Predict the 3D structure of the following.
Amino acid sequence: MSGSGTEKVQENLKKFSAENIDSYVQASTFTDDIQDAIRQHIQTEYKAWFFFRKLGADCLRSNVSLHGFAALWKRSAQEAFADATWLESYLVQRGGRAKPSDIPAPDIEWPDDPVDPVQPVYAALQTEKEILEDLHRLCAAAEKADDNALEDAIESRFLRKETRHVKDLGDLLQQCVRISKQAGHGLYHLDKELRANNGVVPWASFNDPDKSDELLRGVVADLYKSAV
């Protein structure tokens, strides 16, 4: 290698050693405001994870002993943690930087005298709704910045399922209000259903438009078979 070639290599090494390579990865639409919005939602997901972990632990106490509800909250906590981790990886993939902040302790306690589910389930619904509303905020920020990649990621991975979760918990709240009006075996049977479904609300498929399409296709197929 000639002396001039060696000098050019050394010059490039010096140049790129002083550069912020993350900026080369970032698209022009991936602004500081967008990165801050993503970090805020990561924090929202981690808060939800902590909240649902606490709720699940409460349900496993011997004084409460609602193992079906505990399975539901465990699922919710795992999903919130997975979504936060995914979004953090996405942030770094786009050239951003993770900046974790403190997660506040959840202010929730499942009552055990009496063991009533209404208030905790309402708080869970509010937590899921906070996630959904923050996703809408993040999606609007992406649209404003013309960041189509982020907009697509939020819509395809998060928005549909979170909308379904809010509806499922709204239905669960109504069920809890109904059984709490009349003391008896209602809570036991509801928890038993959740336990049998491994923490999935039994009516989840009724709130999923894709499942409705499958049901409709099945009905049409049955009608066609009857007609031929």
Notes: The two ends are 81 Å apart (CA to CA).
